[in-house]
Amino acid sequence: MSTPHVAPAGTNLVGLRDHNAALVLGLLRGRPEGGSRVELAAETGLTPQAVGKIVTRLLTDGTVEEAGQAASTGGKPRTLLRLRPDAGCAVGVHLDRDELTVLLVDLAGRPRYRRTVPVDTARGPAPTVELIADQVRAAATEAPPGARLLGVGAGCRGPLDHGSGVLHWFSTFSSPHDPGTPGWDRFPLRDALAARLAGLPVVVDKDTNAAALTEAPGAAAAPGSGVAYIHLAGGLGAGLLLDGVVHRGARTNAGEFGHQTLLVDGPLCDCGNRGCLEALCLAELRRADHAAAARLVGVGVANLVRVLDVDRVVLGGRVILERPETYRAGVAEQLRERIPDARWQPVAVSVSTAGPWAVAAGAAELVLGPVFGRRA
Questions:
Q1: Number of domains in the chain
Q2: Residues with Cβ < 8 Å from 5, sequence gap 6 or more?
Q3: Do the beta carbons of residue 160 and residue 187 sit within 8 Å?
Q4: pLDDT for 68-85, tens place per residue?
Q5: Among 73, 162, 290, 305, which has the minimal tally of Cβ within 10 Å of its Cβ?
Q6: Domain span at residue 54?
């Protein structure tokens, strides 16, 4: 399958990445009704002259468009500007153990194409990367006419290095539940995928980090706010959104939520340790006891709240989405029981509204976020 035409990273992309232009675009993304030059200058703190130059450039490259005039307040009506969603798009990829989901979104984050296909990561990196590239190319053909494909975001299980896009899927340990992943440990997924996509920018992050971004895309967070996204599928992990920014840690590997030890000398976990929350939870799932699994997840969430004082917990992943109320209620109950003063330290518990597309949507936001001034 031939690679679709992708605009080179020239003046337009440089302009999009400019910090001040990103501030303007970020405001317009959050205001579908549009905003005037005067309003943009006031809200960004830029001079009217600076905003005028930025707007001229964005009008020229088609990223924004004029949207009529605001109601007159006595003077000359102001021309409204708004983001043109069809000007660009991004592809979000969710690489799970047995499924590959690909989502194409426009600049407003609206889905334009989505598809899920089977994948067998145990076959190794080469066929998996080729499958991802083929699916990205197929998604790109559904982009709006003339839209610039800005890049590909890929979310997959950790551990991994977000900065280099290198996976650390250790294959030295195996168990009856996870036979290992030969060839994946220290595999440069970002560079391998970019090479198969003619140098298109690629960003790789943990699936849980990507999904966390869907909970507050482009939003300014209140100081001290914290969101924990808990993902239960083939494994158990967390994505942490603190002060509106993904917390990745020194080695970009924060969020190994499932590998906190709950039972010293407990059952062997696929990571090589004993008594991990993930191992205990998966054991309950093999017995089809979702209520017990939900209680265990709730215990881990309570531990997380006590450590980080997050004020919102969002649940997602295939297992949780099969029985959303069981897990929501189970986690909420453990928080009530284990937080000393739940009235003083309330924690909202909900199920992801993005459903099965949460990781792919967040992966696309890894590409779009910086365009709108967000630290992704």
A1: 3
A2: none
A3: no
A4: 887 766 667 789 999 999
A5: 73
A6: 11-83
Nearest to 22 by CA among 317, 374, 345: 374
Residue 248 identity (one-letter amino acid): R
pLDDT reading at 232 higher than 90: yes
| Contact status, residue 312 vs residue 324, Cβ threshold 8 Å | no
* Single-letter amino acid, residue 314: V
Give per-residue pLDDT as tens, 183-201: 898 999 999 999 999 989 9
Left if phi > 0, otherwise alpha if psi is -120 to 50, otherwise beta: which for 293?
alpha
Which of these, 131, 40, 105, 164, lies nearest to 369 by C-alpha position? 105
Residues 33 and 69 in one domain: yes
Regarding whether 339 and 278 lie in a shared domain, the answer is yes
C-beta of residue 215 within 8 angstroms of C-beta of residue 148: no
- Beta strand pairing call for 64-69 and 79-83: antiparallel
Tokens of 32: 């579908």
Average pLDDT for the chain: 88
Read off the pLDDT band of 2 (50, 70, 90).
very low
Pair 245, 201 in one domain:
no
Q: What is the CATH number of the domain that holds 131?
A: 3.30.420.40
Q: What pTM, to 2 d.p., does this model score?
A: 0.87
